[in-house]
Design a protein that fits this description.
Layout: H1 2-40, H2 45-63, H3 67-81, H4 85-121, H5 125-138, H6 142-157, H7 161-185, H8 189-216, H9 218-223, H10 229-263, H11 265-302, H12 305-341, H13 345-353, H14 355-377, H15 381-403, H16 408-427, H17 430-448
Helix pairs in contact: 1-2, 1-7, 1-11, 1-12, 2-5, 2-8, 2-10, 2-11, 3-4, 3-6, 3-10, 3-11, 4-5, 4-6, 4-10, 5-8, 6-8, 7-8, 10-11, 10-15, 10-16, 11-12, 11-13, 11-14, 11-17, 12-13, 12-14, 14-16, 15-16
Length: about 450
């Protein structure tokens, strides 16, 4: 009875942290859905292909720097568990400095590399010009996007999940409006979607700064706005493996988009819609993963193994339950959603045929999102890196090499194998994570006992 009561409390806490993040994360793929719907109703299908392929490439490219959010969240959550408020501000200040510098480098080097990226992708000739222009425009948003990662990570680590919701909803709603105005209202087509996104990124960073000043007070934050070698080294030590891990993950998504683009315009557009649906589900499930980051990090910081154990159960139960509900929703209305996203019949037909793969892949991946949250909260980035690299090498690259990848079914079979191995490999490290928290609790108790 006592266990049930504790588990019920953990479920309630987890849900209280997660629901604003579920809504916040859902706003991100909703932008993708809106962009796909806008581009899908432009005059030519190659605008839809350019936007979906280009958006996926940027999700991959900027996603490679998502370590700025993950590392910040884990460190801040542990500092909150230790009641070290000033430390959380130092972590944020140094994370913003790091993100801003990286963003400037990315904008300059990325703009120069667009032509090489296009040559590597080898897209269908119809996609070439709109895709190139889309990439060049979107590259301008790098500094704002990367700094927003760090800022969002700080709010989540502090457990301020409702502020993360306000940021995501405000920025993405503005983004949708701007994209519609530029693409359709001003007739800029896919270029307008890219430009609207860039403007929204910078306005979103300013909006985040406003909320930061509300939470901390501007003076208090500015006192800590200076690089500190120890903090930067700690951030780099955690973020380095996360960067490699994210690159390995993005190899899979880039590969899927690139292979689809080589198959043809219809296939590229259909895979783009598939990835938008998968991102919608994944971002919703990441709400529970983020809650696990908070709970795991704060439990480790305070040395509370019971809190950690209950949060594990809560995260797993909520993740699996939500996944089943989403699968039921897609099974009921997935084909209608695809029809709403594009008016092109050939794209509808191919995308609808991919829905069975969606069910299997989401089931294979769902618990990996929750496990990522646990290990981010514990800042066990090396284990995340190694398990992701193994899953990519064996499940994606290995299976593609064995299976030739001459069709969409070949691509999605490899994607499914990757998802299964990603979950199994990281799950095998959960007992070691449990021992880490137990050790921290033992140290805390030893220090609190009288000599």
């Amino acid at each position: 009875m006592r266990l049930n009561h504790r588990l019920g409390g953990a479920l309630s806490t987890h849900w209280g942290l997660a629901w604003p993040l579920i809504l916040a994360n859902s706003a991100i793929p909703l932008l993708g859905l809106a962009d796909a719907a806008i581009a899908g109703h432009l005059k030519h299908a190659y605008y839809l292909a350019a936007v979906t392929v280009g958006a996926e490439l940027f999700a991959v490219f900027f996603g490679a720097f998502s370590f700025l959010r993950m590392g910040t969240t884990g460190l801040v959550a542990q500092a909150v568990g230790q009641n070290a408020t000033t430390t959380t501000l130092k972590i944020l200040a140094n994370a913003l400095v790091l993100a801003g510098c990286l963003g400037l480098v990315v904008t300059v080097s990325g703009t120069l590399a667009v032509d090489q990226v296009i040559k590597w992708i080898k897209p269908n000739p119809d996609i070439l010009l709109p895709l190139t222009a889309y990439l060049e425009i979107r590259m301008l948003s790098a500094p704002a996007a990367l700094m927003s990662f760090a800022l969002t990570g700080w709010f989540i680590g502090r457990g301020l999940t409702r502020i993360a919701l306000y940021l995501a909803l405000g920025v993405n709603l503005l983004n949708i409006v701007l994209n519609y105005v530029f693409a359709i209202g001003l007739g800029m087509n896919s270029n307008g979607i890219a430009l609207g996104t860039v403007i929204a990124e910078y306005l979103g960073l300013g909006y985040g700064a406003f909320w930061l000043s509300r939470v901390t007070g501007l003076t208090q934050f500015l006192k800590n706005l200076r690089p500190e070698r120890i903090v930067l080294i700690r951030l780099l030590g955690i973020n380095g493996p996360l960067f490699v891990r994210t690159l390995a993950l993005q190899v899979v998504f880039v590969g899927l988009s690139v292979h689809a683009a080589r198959l043809g315009v219809t296939e590229a557009a259909a895979v783009g819609l598939f990835l938008v649906l998968l991102a919608t589900a994944a971002y919703a499930l990441d709400g529970f993963a983020f809650a696990s980051e908070i709970e795991a990090g704060q439990a480790l910081g305070s040395g509370q193994s019971e809190r950690f154990k209950n949060s594990l159960w809560a995260g797993a139960i909520l993740t699996l339950g939500t996944t089943l509900l989403m699968l039921l929703a897609v099974a009921t209305g997935g084909s209608y959603l695809i029809q709403a996203l594009t008016a092109h019949n050939e794209v509808q037909l191919v995308a609808t045929g991919l829905l069975p793969w969606f069910y299997g892949i989401l089931l294979a991946l769902c618990l990996s999102y929750w496990l990522d949250g646990v290990f981010i909260g514990l800042t066990r980035s090396l284990e995340m890196c190694l398990t992701m690299c193994l899953a990519t090498l064996i499940g994606w690259i290995g299976v593609l090499y064995w299976n030739d990848a001459n069709s969409l079914d070949d691509l999605f079979f490899a994607f499914f194998c990757f998802g299964v191995l990603r979950t199994l490999f990281l799950g095998s490290r959960l007992p070691a994570a449990w021992r880490i928290v137990m050790t921290r609790e033992a140290h805390r108790r030893a220090k609190s006992e009288p000599a």
